[in-house]
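Hey, quick one: can you model this chain's 3D structure?
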Amino acid sequence: MSTQLPLPASWAQLQSLRDARDRLATLERDVVVARGRIREALDELADRHGIARRDVTYAMEGYADNLLSDVVYNRQRTLEREIEGETEP
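Sure thing. Here's the predicted structure for all 89 residues.
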């Protein structure tokens, strides 16, 4: 017979709090990469169809940045709360 430990283990909770900063930094880096990919796709579309760069820039600043912010908002706030110690372990 074996003994089952309660979950999550205390060491896992401490590790999770340390990792929250790393996970937030990774999320922020991944958002920058995603923004770059969106920009590349829009630039390619603009090149093929003679769309002005300022229109692409306008779309990026007006829509794409908001889109990315909306997509990651809940996860970002969860990680920030973990870092701030607002979430219960």
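One thing worth noting: The longest helix spans residues 10-49.
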